[in-house]
């Protein structure tokens, strides 16, 4: 197991142990490595967000 996968799994386990029923993550759409990691951990994209920055 890689470092990223181990960190996500530890966060997930702690959140669920604390009573969380939903665990979410935010990553930039161009970050394909993060997208692959999250999807590999069983997380599915449910929200796309756009914003203006000045």
Order of helices and strands: HH
Mean pLDDT: 89
| Structure summary, number of beta strands | 0
Instruction: Please give the count of helices.
Output: 2
Net shape: globular
Biggest sheet, open or closed, and with what strands and sense? none
Q: How far apart are the first and last residues' alpha carbons, in Å? A: 40 Å
| Helical amount | 40-55%
Structural class: mainly alpha
Please state the CA-atom Rg, rounded to the nearest Å: 13 Å
Strand content: under 5%
| Unreliable residue stretches | none
Give the topology.
Layout: H1 3-17, H2 32-40
Account of the protein in words:
- With 54 residues, the chain is mainly α.
- The protein contains two helices and no strands.
- The chain is globular, with a radius of gyration of 13 Å.
- It starts with a helix and ends in a 14-residue tail after the last helix.
- 2% of the residues are buried.
Question: Can you summarize this structure?
Answer:
With 54 residues, the chain is mostly helical.
Give a quick set of tags describing it.
mainly alpha
